[in-house]
């Protein structure tokens, strides 16, 4: 639907919430990247910045929801317009959750900075974060350009994140078995890995919203989960 | 969550009440309805939507042979009510219109009292046995049309002396007084305030328990609120017909989408 509304103020309202969502997306991408840099570089100051930036992300979600509620009340959107507003609200919710995970990662990185390093996990986690940021930014681009193919591509990439998580999980397990003094640090690192994996799930949810926006139907839930963790007898807890 | 329909408005498996096949309508040279196939379900509210002049009123009038009264109008194709051809020579249009009632786009009360306007149908069709029964039908009909409280003290005043919105509700009362099986309503709320509109919508929803209602409306919100099925007409064609919940969340035809969402199509 690229045609304009006869009532041009309606288009302006829709553009406004779209722009706000993209701004929020940018804030969340920055939070993930900075949290992972802070972790790898043991940079407390950067970690602190991520933690305080989360408040702005939360405030942004609230603003988007208010704007969307106003648009529903005043413009009574239907069809694509309705799906657009609904998708913006749901995506803002997912972004807010991702922001929380980034904040949690920053919190743990401050604690980890006081412990001896374990293996090369910092680098692996940064790569995993980068992959998630890639999914997220593609999902958001797909939202702006109404590109269902790009969104489907994001869905497929969630598998890679799951695999990275599983590999890290095994690595942490090895470190812990080698030397029980590694357990505290490894537990924190494991939670971080799990959080990044959850971010990937939220990026996937966003991509699903894009598919719903473009096609009017939610994609089928048939993505195979590359999750072998449960077979280790441990259910990955979060934060 | 791949379905956002409100479950209440979802349509069960209803019987077909009216079945139209290959309907064409001509006003002289003007081809106003082109090859329309549609099945109107029993116990269901069906909304006809579409831009001005697309043929909604014309098609609606085919369903109770109101077009017979327009000399230059020619109707082709089949329209079956409960499996019987309503254009069959043996069908009496007056009897048909008692079964398939109609409320017009412009209120058209008879130049008679409020009471007589409503009593007219039950009288000519002999639906009541005595004055008390007729009084009862008149009161019930006026109540259903959300007009009773405003007119109960002046039932013998002329119907034409009511306000536009009141006249429209009087016509609704007149149409429901014969307990039609199908009620055709052409923009019944265009002259009504929000309260009277809500009351008429409530009436429509009530009627759906027993009857089939077809409503032409220019209000997308009204179509979404009251109907379970929606038909979108464009330039004499039936472009899209489906569950109201689907039409308003994921219309299949770009012409439907542009129209309902207020875009330059
Ligand atoms: N009595 C008539 N005589 C001649 N032409 C007519 C008559 N009634 C309708 N038409 C023509 O038939 C076409 C369809 O008109 P119709 O009244 O069915 O449209 P509509 O969809 O009900 O429009 P609106 O929303 O404005 O009421 C138009 O081109 C109109 O000019
Ligand atoms: Mg009309």
TrEMBL record, chain A:
Keyword Transport: yes
Protein's job: Plays a role in the regulation of phosphate uptake.
Source species taxonomy: Bacteria, Pseudomonadati, Pseudomonadota, Alphaproteobacteria, Rhodobacterales
Family per similarity comment: Belongs to the PhoU family.
A Pfam family hit: PhoU
Regions annotated as coiled coil: 43-70
Chain's gene name: phoU
SUPFAM superfamilies: PhoU-like
Cell compartments where the protein resides: Cytoplasm
Subunit record text: Homodimer.
Full protein name: Phosphate-specific transport system accessory protein PhoU
InterPro entries cross-referenced by the UniProt entry: PhoU, PhoU-like_sf, PhoU_dom
Residue ranges annotated for the PhoU domain, each copy included: 21-108, 125-210
Alphabetized UniProt keyword annotations: Coiled coil, Cytoplasm, Phosphate transport, Transport
Main location: cytoplasm
Automatic annotation (TrEMBL), chain B:
Residue ranges the record marks as coiled coil: none
Key word Nucleotide-binding present: yes
Keyword annotations of the record: ATP-binding, Nucleotide-binding, Phosphate transport, Transport
Listed GO MF terms: ATP binding
InterPro entries recorded: AAA+_ATPase (IPR003593), ABC_transporter-like_ATP-bd (IPR003439), ABC_transporter-like_CS (IPR017871), P-loop_NTPase (IPR027417), PstB-like (IPR005670)
Domain ABC transporter: 11-260
Pfam families: ABC_tran (PF00005)
Name of the protein this chain belongs to: Phosphate ABC transporter ATP-binding protein PstB
Provenance organism: Albidovulum sediminicola
Gene assigned in the entry: pstB
């Amino acid at each position: 639907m690229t045609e304009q509304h006869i009532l041009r103020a309606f288009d302006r309202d829709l553009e406004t919430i779209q722009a706000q969502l993209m701004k929020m997306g940018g804030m969340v991408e920055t939070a993930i990247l900075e949290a992972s840099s802070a972790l790898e570089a043991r940079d407390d100051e950067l970690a602190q910045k991520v933690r305080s930036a989360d408040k702005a992300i939360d405030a942004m979600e609230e603003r988007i929801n208010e704007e969307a509620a106003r648009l529903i009340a005043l413009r009574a959107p239907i069809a694509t317009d309705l799906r657009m507003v609904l998708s913006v609200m749901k995506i803002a919710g997912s972004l807010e959750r991702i922001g929380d995970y980034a904040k949690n990662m920053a919190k743990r990185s401050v604690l980890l900075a006081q412990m001896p390093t374990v293996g090369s996990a910092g680098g692996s986690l940064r790569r995993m974060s980068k992959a998630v940021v890639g999914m997220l930014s593609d999902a958001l681009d797909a939202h702006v350009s109404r590109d269902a193919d790009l969104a489907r591509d994001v869905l497929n990439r969630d598998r890679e994140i799951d695999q990275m998580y599983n590999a890290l999980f095994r690595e942490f397990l090895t470190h812990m078995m080698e030397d029980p003094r590694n357990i505290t640090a490894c537990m924190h690192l494991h939670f971080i890995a799990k959080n990044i994996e959850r971010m990937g799930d939220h990026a996937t949810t966003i991509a699903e919203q894009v598919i719903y926006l473009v096609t009017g139907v939610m994609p089928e839930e048939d993505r195979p989960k590359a999750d072998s963790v449960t077979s280790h007898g441990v259910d990955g807890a979060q934060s | 969550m791949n379905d956002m329909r409100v479950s209440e408005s979802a349509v069960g498996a209803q019987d077909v009440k009216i079945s139209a096949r290959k309907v064409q309508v001509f006003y002289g040279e003007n081809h106003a309805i082109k090859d329309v196939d549609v099945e109107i379900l029993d116990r269901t509210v069906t909304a006809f939507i579409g831009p001005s002049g697309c043929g909604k009123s014309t098609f609606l009038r085919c369903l109770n042979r109101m077009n017979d009264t327009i000399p230059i109008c020619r109707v082709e194709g089949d329209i079956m009510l409960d499996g019987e051809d309503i254009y069959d020579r043996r069908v009496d249009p007056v009897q048909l219109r008692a079964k398939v009632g109609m409320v017009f786009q412009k209120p058209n009360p008879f130049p008679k009292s409020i009471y007589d306007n409503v009593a007219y149908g039950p009288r000519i069709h002999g639906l009541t046995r005595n004055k008390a029964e007729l009084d009862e039908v008149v009161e019930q009909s006026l109540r259903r049309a959300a007009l009773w409280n405003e007119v109960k003290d002046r039932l013998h005043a002329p119907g034409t002396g009511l306000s536009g919105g009141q006249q429209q509700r009087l016509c609704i009362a007149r149409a429901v007084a014969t307990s039609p099986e199908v009620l055709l309503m052409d923009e019944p709320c265009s002259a009504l305030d929000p309260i009277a509109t809500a009351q008429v919508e409530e009436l429509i929803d009530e009627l759906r328990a027993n009857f089939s209602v077809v409503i032409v409306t220019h209000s997308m919100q009204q179509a979404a609120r009251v109907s379970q099925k929606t038909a979108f007409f464009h330039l004499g064609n039936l472009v899209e017909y489906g569950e109201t919940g689907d039409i308003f969340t994921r219309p299949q035809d770009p012409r439907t989408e542009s129209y309902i969402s207020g875009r330059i199509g």
